Amino acid sequence: MPKNTVVKYLKFTKIVNLFFVLILFWWFIPTTQAQQNVIWNTQSQNSSESMPVGGGDIGLNLWVEKGEVYLYLSRSGTFDENNTLLKLGRVKLKFSSDPFEGKTFKQELILKDGYAQIDGSDIQIKVWVDVFNPVIHVDVKSKKKITTEASYESWRFEDRITKGKENNQNSYKWAPQGLVKTAKDEIAFENNGIQFYHQNKAETVFDVAVNQQGLADRKAELYNPIKNLIFGGLMEGKNMVSAGNEAGTYLSTPFQSWKLKSKIPSQSQEITIALNISNAGIQNWEKELYLIKRNSTQKASIKWWNDYWKRSFVYINSKSVLANQSSENYQLFRYMLGCNAFGKYPTKFNGGLFTFDPQLTDTALK
User: Fold this and answer.
1) Domains assigned to the chain
2) Residue 140 pLDDT > 70, yes or no?
3) CB neighbours of 199 closer than 8 A, spacing ≥ 6?
């Protein structure tokens, strides 16, 4: 065979091989991720059985308990005056009739597209986060007209003293300087929405650390990321109105709630929670909050997640249960890292944005 013919043949073979590799690659990714979606067919007992959902720099704990849908809200960079990464609150959805009564229940984390979906016999609830705008979306669709009640729940309705092991969450650790308090949040109805925020106090753990280290004369030169920091958001519902307050206890923690309710029963309901972080004062924080784009479609976020999974992947298809579990755990770990892809701070080692009630991990913290 002539030399130039051999060269052409080898080039052709490489092209064909590359073509088949690309076909396999594009087919492989959605197939493997669909196989490793997390699917639950029963409701959860509490927040320890919650599902991670997120995007951008936002993380949610999602679970269904006794027919009600719960969300813990987290975002990268929400450090208080004690340098504790605070949750932004909890959201609860309640419906006029139990949509999960009977045998039909399915909660699925759809890895490829980065969102979660809950299905009952007559209802579908989609929970997703806009990767490019700090907005949480909850979309409800029902076969029959129902009334939806959305509550914003907070345990920081008053100052909270942190005791003992609780101080491991802040920078005082085992050497607090007297009583350590988590300051209360500001929460109020605002034009048929619920506005909530935490504003760091003038004196923070940064000031304590500077004085303790004898650096008071150089304080102005030091970077202080928690000075004047304000973080929180605004929860709104299309065709929803304010519906009063309630008080209660979840596990062993008392809370107060602010409620929104459908104006009239409907087959669909859209709820958004826009989040903002700023250290430029409360007026600027509010101005920025109301400028956040809330009407984005999910298309751009789905594309981002699709591209994220295509960059690289590890998939183990084995007869070994342990090997397959390792593969599944890797996908979930990578998903949670992706939820903080644009975070101001790296994902924390202790669960990052997806921690839940501490008494469920350490009974001494009840």
Assistant:
1) 39-365 (2.70.98.50)
2) yes
3) 183, 186, 229, 230, 282
CB 229 within 8 A of CB 79: yes
DSSP state of 87: -
Contacts of residue 215, Cβ cutoff 8 Å, sequence gap at least 6: 222
Highest-pLDDT range among 28-32, 254-258, 290-294? 254-258
Q: What is the pTM of this model?
A: 0.88
Between CA 161 and CA 200 the distance in angstroms is 15
| DSSP-assigned letter for residue 228 | T
User: Helix 299-311 and helix 3-35: axis angle, to 10°?
Assistant: 120
Hunting for tokens 């650096």 — which residue is that?
215
Contact 67, 100 (CB under 8 A): yes
For the chain, helix, strand, coil in percent to 5 are 30, 35, 35
Distances (CA, A) of 31 to 27, 226, 306: 6, 44, 12
- SS3 label, residue 26: helix
CA–CA separation, 326 and 329 (whole Å): 5
Give the angle 357-361-364 at the CA atoms, nearest 5°. 95
